[in-house]
Each structure stands twice: as structure tokens, then as C-alpha cells.
Amino acid sequence: MKRQLKTADEIHAEVWRLIHVDAEVIDDGEEVHVPRPKPQPPGAEADGCNWTMRSFGNASAYRASVLQALATVQAKWNLNA
Fold first, then answer.
1. Distance of CA 64 to CAs 23, 24, 37, 79, Å?
2. 3-state secondary structure at position 8
3. Of 29, 35, 69, 72, which is the most exposed, with the fewest CB atoms less than 10 Å away?
4. pTM score, two decimals?
5. Which residues pair with 39 in a beta bridge?
6. How far lies 6's CA from each of 9, 49, 60, 75, 81, in Å?
7. In 10 A of CB 56, how many CB atoms?
8. What are the pLDDT digits (tens) for 9-30?
9. CA gap 12, 9 in Å, rounded
10. Helical H runs in the chain?
11. Is residue 49 classed exposed, middle or buried when 0-12, 13-18 and 19+ CB atoms within 10 A define those classes?
């Protein structure tokens, strides 16, 4: 499936949403800081995704949720740079 092009704001909002609907994050009442997506140089990712996010804040207890949200959005959307 071809990835849809989305803005940095749209990507940021979707990753944030997916993390913050996680039951553990909700139960703990925590706020995870989600960074802005950063462009990747062509060919940097073997799967063809052209962006990444690093340095999530307050996320160590929710690593699995963060990684799942990131992978989900990277699989369907590319950054419209």
C-alpha cells in the first residue's frame, strides 16, 4: 500500500492521539511529549518512510505504546515536505 502524504502537524497529532488512547497512559493520567516529525534523507529507511521522531518525553514507562504508535503511523503516512 502506498503511503499518503501528510503534514508534520497531521503526523504529530496522529502519533500523539495513538499514544494517549493507550489504556496504561490513560490509567496513569500521564502526558507523553511527542516531538515533531523530522525528515529522513532518501533511502535512510529500508521500508521507505521519509520521516522519524526521536526524544519522546515522559515516555520510558510507555515505550511499547510509543513504538507501536510510531510504527503504525510510519506504515501509512509519509511527510509532505
1. 12, 11, 19, 23
2. helix
3. 29
4. 0.91
5. 51
6. 8, 12, 27, 12, 9
7. 19
8. 999 999 999 999 999 999 999 9
9. 5
10. 8-20, 23-28, 63-76
11. buried
